[in-house]
Amino acid sequence: MYEQVSHTLLNDILNDIKPEISEQDLRHFYTRLGANFYGIHSLFHTLYGEREDFAEQAQQLVETMAQHYIKRPEKLRQLDLAREKDYNWFLSQQWIGMALYCKGFAGNLQGLQERLHYFQELGVNLVHVMPILRCPEGSSDGGYAVSDFREINPEVGTLEDLQQLAAEMKKRDILLVLDVVVNHTSNMHYWAKRAKAGEKKYQDYYYTFETRNVPDMFDQTMPEIFPETAPGNFTWSEEMGRWVMTVFNDFQWDLNYSNPSVFIEMLNIILFWANQGADILRLDAVAFLWKKIGSTCQNEREAHLILQLLKDCCQVTAPGVVFIAEAIVAPVEVIKYFGEDAVIAKECEIAYNATFMALLWDAVATKNACLLNHGIKSLPVKLDRATWLNYVRCHDDIGLGFDDRDILLCDYEPARHRKFLIDYFTGKFEKSHARGLPFGQNAKTGDARISGSLASLVGLEHALEIGDNKAVDDAVKLILLLHSMILSFGGIPLLYYGDEIGTLNDDSYRDDPYKKGDTRWVHRPSIDWEKAELRNTPGTVEYGVFSALKRMIAIRKEIEVFADFNNRELIEVENPHLFVFGRYHIQKPTEQVLVIANFSNQPQHLNLDDLGSWGAKYRPLVDLYQGTHPDIFKNSLVIPGFGFYWLCER
Ligand code: GLC
Ligand code: GLC
Known about the structure:
The chain is of the alpha/beta class. Among the domains are: 184-254, Alpha-Beta Complex (Oligo-1,6-glucosidase, domain 2); 570-649, Immunoglobulin-like (Sandwich). Helices cover 38% and strands 16% of the residues. It is built from 24 helices and 27 strands. It has an eight-stranded parallel barrel, surrounded by four helices. The model has no long low-confidence stretch (mean pLDDT 96). One alpha-D-glucopyranose (GLC) binds at residues 141-142, 144, 181, 248, 284-285, 326, 395-396.
């Protein structure tokens, strides 16, 4: 869009631009800058327009983008152009993700590179390497308390190792996902150290206060994220002699985005990692980016403006790079992180589908799909050209963030139902063999979340211990059922390392003084590669899970209707144990797949009349996964206990 005010500013900026920039051939850069500048200017102005130094800040913003464009390797620039052309590239059903800790998976970055064949064996072609940057030992929050945004933790390797890994992954068509922890830094970060030393410039990078007045005001409305280990949202810094905002742990200082220097620094870091070869950047804890007195300080409008601005700027320098929003918030809020508009107000192309994840766990505990059905029905339709990251487990806890109204629709009382779920997954409920642990218990609100590995949560640990083969089989079926959901729902499935071979809880974190206070470590394993070899031995759990997932993944990649173009229809059926939806091809209407999941351990039947136009009553159906016809007796289709179907017409 052409508009006078922003265009005049852009002319001024280009007139004054540093010679080392103006001397370069920046054709594509300028085209994109021109196209996006109206948006960039209006967002930057809304956020920082009041400031006297606005024009200088804008100048610096543009120079930051230009400098990274100049440094962007030619290969990545070519990739940008290719992805501009093939702009739906990330919506394809071909992508299968896995998230992992480099150290736990392979020791270090070189080890990870040596294990790339493992991903290819399984069919994984998108790997989220969780934070590998320098963090203070003992107060690292699993890598999310970064003390240097450009330096790799020497325990896992060097920047060169990462560049090599990225290059090798590109060769093998595996996408690299890296984190940028945008909301906070470690209290040992250079900026925090300078703030502690009394430098006003760096104190302004954070929210610091002399007295408790403002902190007390904030604390009235801000929830606590880690109520047990880090109650409250502020920490007294003895060295600085001031209170500092610390929403997560007391060693994680929240960045102050009302300061444009913070925005520019973080953009700088985002573009730096884009230039190291990351295809996708996961922006951590984005719901928290803007703080406002009287609010929960989550999902504020300005947090969205910041993300839109980051996106607009990144599109100028590195348009091939897409963002993942890590916003574990209510369904109506999550959806907003894709942006308000697919073109003019874009934020992150991908977002964690925490709603679906939590609903799946509800179905596991209740053995029915009532809440799952209601929850998905209330999930707002997302923008075009935006996609979910669908997952069963990740490195974090499982939060029970359902909408109370949906819980009521199932005739459960919300508080009691949540308590049941906690009891179920921590094994307190008498019929449960889950081995989860509570996380984030809050005595004041009664809230709690759940830690635990997938396999231990579905009862595999218990079943193996008592040597009950039927129970082992059921646990494996549940693991596969859950994966069949994330592989077919629409979006990028994100497996969690270790789950593909049924890895159990790892209790060793209890012996580590730095970890024992955080139960999430129970599900952040170190892979036992000898045990992983069992994936080749029929009859083992490792084989059962790995080979089945491998098959499911291979099939998904072949089925175009599994690509995510908002081409899913939820189908309500009589039988409460079943979750049923259809996927259709937006261009070829006859191509469709009917997905049926049975969350009960008993066989269940589905009345074909319930399926409406999806019911292939007089046509033969075949299950893509097993390659067989489902059992149909008269009008009833029978689904085995913990079974699933991906049905299409044959
Ligand atoms: C993100 C991470 C989580 C971390 C938190 C604070 O949510 O996933 O592990 O504790 O941010 O950085
Ligand atoms: C909260 C936050 C999320 C974070 C998690 C860590 O759910 O919203 O961002 O990952 O806590 O446990």
